Amino acid sequence: EESVFYYHNKLMSYGARYTGTLNCTLAGHYIYNEFKEMGLDTTFHEWEYDGFKSRNIVGILQGSYPSSNVIFIMSAHYDCTPGSPGADDDGSGVAAVLATAKVMSQYRFNHTIYFIAFAGEEVGTYGSFTYARDAYNSGKNIVAVINVDMVGYADSAKGGNILRFHSPER
């Protein structure tokens, strides 16, 4: 709880983070540095789509099983709508991803885990779209994605007890 609160407050200090703005870029650098400090292999995934240009931040916790090419992803988006601090949508998700990455980075897992902070969600999911397209084209073996968006949000008491899962139709 303390870690989530810390990461959330730090992200909020950048103000509104609309894709392509200086605040969004600075927040991306912050996330990048946090992943690096955790010892994750950290990269920028640069993208350009429909007149927008930005970067996704990818922190990789390498799996310990040498022959595995399996990848699990936990993600959220760090951009927000113009004029909004993006506290819930999706500062809460980024804080959860950072806190989870911090804990999990202390352990080893058989398969590789990617922690990804996407930009461009509020302009048409461009960051995650381009990442998925590029991952598919490069043959990455992604077996599961947990996308954390608007942690703690519910429009009803019943909605607060629901976790949504989507799987590809076969």
Outline the structure in words:
- This protein has 170 residues and is of the alpha/beta class.
- Helix content is 34%, strand content 24%.
- The protein contains 4 helices and 5 strands.
- The protein has a 5-stranded mixed β-sheet, with helices on both faces.
- Helix 1 (2-12) crosses helix 3.
- The longest helix is centred in the middle third of the chain and has 18 residues, at 87-104.
- It is globular.
- It starts with a helix and ends in a 23-residue tail after the last strand.
- The relative contact order is 0.20.
- The model has no long low-confidence stretch (mean pLDDT 94).
Search tags:
170 residues, 5 strands, 24% strand, alpha/beta
Compile the SSE list and pairings.
Blueprint: H1 2-12, H2 22-37, E1 41-49, E2 52-61, E3 70-77, H3 87-104, E4 112-118, H4 126-137, E5 141-147
Parallel strand pairs: 3-4, 3-5
Antiparallel strand pairs: 1-2, 2-4
Helix pairs in contact: 1-3
Task: Please mark out the parts with pLDDT under 50 across 5 or more consecutive residues, or reply none.
Answer: none
Mean of the pLDDT scores? 94
Order of H and E elements: HHEEEHEHE
Give the N-terminus to C-terminus distance in angstroms.
38 Å
Count of strand segments: 5
- Order of strands in the sheet with most strands: 1-2-4-3-5
Measured by DSSP, the beta-strand proportion falls in 15-25%
Shape verdict:
globular
Q: Structural class of the secondary structure composition? A: alpha/beta
Counted by DSSP, the helix tally is: 4
- Overall radius of gyration: 16 Å
Most strands sheet: 5 strands, mixed
Helix fraction, binned, reads 25-40%
